Amino acid sequence: MDIVLVAGLWLDGSAWDDVLPELEALGHRGVPVTLPGQGDGRTEATYDEQVEAVVAAVDAADGAPLVVGHSAACTLAWAAADRRPDGVAGVALIGGFPSTEGESYADFFEPVDGAMPFPGWKKFEGPDSDDMSEELKADLLGRMIPVPVGVTRGTVHWTSDARHAVPLTLICPEFSPAEAQEWIDAGDVPELAAATDLRLVDLDSGHWPMYTQPAALARVVDEAARR
Predict the structure, then answer these.
(1) Which segments constitute the AB hydrolase-1 domain (predicted)?
(2) Is 66 strand, coil or helix?
(3) Which fold does the domain 2-225 belong to in CATH?
(4) Which is deepest, 49, 110, 141, 149, by most CB within 10 Å?
(5) b/e code 141-168 from CB counts within 10 Å (16+ = b)
(6) How confident is the model at residue 191 (pLDDT cuts 50, 70, 90)?
(7) Structural element, H or E, at residue 167
(8) Hey, CA dihedral for 203, 208, 211, 217, is it positive or negative?
(9) Gap between the Cα atoms of 78 and 82, Å rounded
(10) Percentage helix, strand, coil, to 5, in the chain?
């Protein structure tokens, strides 16, 4: 199966380099997406352009793909299901949740010169990054890409209730499935609460398992694909 891979903020398609051979060994073809404004050489881009890039990858896939979104890009992966509910085999979300209708996509930190830079590892101390070596952090810090405000401050709109029936897997790295279920039950994640085919899966890692646990991540993605 083709598996469309969408990394979160500050990352480009190379974030999946260690995951691709693991997926191939399991019989899949990984299709990393380099998003507009995140590694394609552009300094300006919009949220809608990023959605269009993910949908284009879905349309170009060999058959109906699984779409995998990481962190903030969980919204982009779910947007593919929203735009192509009959064109995706399912969606897997890693360490994040789809935004609620009318929210900004990812307006989390103050921008600098029209883009939101990575705020540094101190903001992610604890379970998010405990499994990362200092060498890995230093390497990634040098590769993080400031995300244009046209992306981070874009408004999320959902268009098709048919997305709610798309098979959905929430991969829980730095939080547990039990914690995720509590948030869903409390009404904090309306998109997941409305999903009719949702599975929660544990993954013992921090927030960036594509770097720290690529083989384990590939296995849970494979399980999502085989649903």
Answers:
(1) 3-219
(2) strand
(3) Rossmann fold (3.40.50)
(4) 149
(5) eeebbbbbbbbbebebebeeeebbebbb
(6) very high
(7) none
(8) positive
(9) 6
(10) 40, 15, 45
